[in-house]
Design a protein that fits this description.
By secondary structure, the protein is of the alpha+beta class. The protein contains seven helices and 16 strands.
Length: 262
């Protein structure tokens, strides 16, 4: 009983009440300040609609996002040769019109952009036959030209592989469509012949150009040709091996052409 009387007296004492009121006020002040800080820090209640930037160039998309106080980050590039370089092909998050989700200022919009060139690894072609080397390069989307050097032990084999005039090692990445120079060994008895550009010539003109040199022509396709006369006057629009300036081929090489009647 005496304990309860003392406890009641302490609770109702000015000293206890003063400290209790101080603690309660302190609590409300701290909580109030914290709520105000969080509201301001997190932009509570702010909603910004994410625009659609797919199809825009990076400069235009960045300006559009900055006007809304949003940021842009380019994640990577995607091989899309049909689009201008730097065109945005995807974004995260999606535009609000599709996702129905709004964001706050300062949000980073991550995008992927297009590029026209795609890189492939250079294979090792050393000691491979020129035919196999040609096939490997074609499968990787690379073009080639061949230079022949006298060789008695490596006839028809690739001795060196060059890109832009320099040796290129296996695994080096270069753009699709690049031209690789193959240095091929050849017996000194058979000198290489410079490849001739037959595109734009008629079949008869092409045969005349090749007469007297050790190259042959084969008509693989002739669009609109029904008679021998049609074939003779058809105009060549492609050839294999493809013509590149300075390319040489082995004597006796057959050039396969495609032509059309005009």
């Amino acid at each position: 009983m005496k304990f309860l009387q003392k406890l009641r007296a302490f609770v109702w004492s000015k000293h206890f009440l003063k400290h209790t009121i101080f603690i309660v006020l302190t609590y409300f002040v701290v909580v109030g300040i914290l709520i105000l800080y969080l509201d301001q820090y997190t932009n509570h209640g702010e909603k910004i609609d994410v625009p659609n930037v797919v199809g825009l160039r990076t400069e235009g998309a960045q300006s559009k996002l900055e006007a809304l106080e949003l940021k842009m980050e380019v994640l990577d590039s995607v091989y899309r040769p049909e689009l201008p370089t730097g065109t945005i092909v995807s974004q995260d998050p999606l535009p609000t019109s599709k996702s129905l989700v709004s964001v706050k200022s300062g949000r980073v919009i991550r995008v992927q952009v297009s590029k026209k060139s795609r890189l492939v690894e250079m294979p090792s072609l050393i000691d491979k036959s020129e035919r196999i080397a040609e096939s490997i390069l074609k499968n990787r989307g690379l073009k080639y030209r061949k230079n022949y050097v006298p060789s008695s032990e490596a006839n028809g084999a690739v001795l060196r592989q060059l890109y832009n005039g320099r040796e290129i090692k296996e695994g080096t990445k270069i753009p699709v469509g690049s031209v690789v120079t193959l240095v091929v060994g050849q017996n000194s008895a058979s000198q290489p012949v410079e490849l001739i550009d037959l595109n734009g010539l008629t079949i008869s003109e092409a045969k005349a150009r090749l007469s007297g040199i050790s190259l042959h022509i084969l008509v693989g396709l002739c669009d609109g040709c029904s008679t021998a006369a049609d074939t003779t006057t058809a105009v060549i629009y492609s050839q294999s091996p493809e013509y590149l300036e300075g390319v040489t081929v082995s004597p006796g090489t057959t050039i396969t052409v495609s032509a059309e009647r005009r």
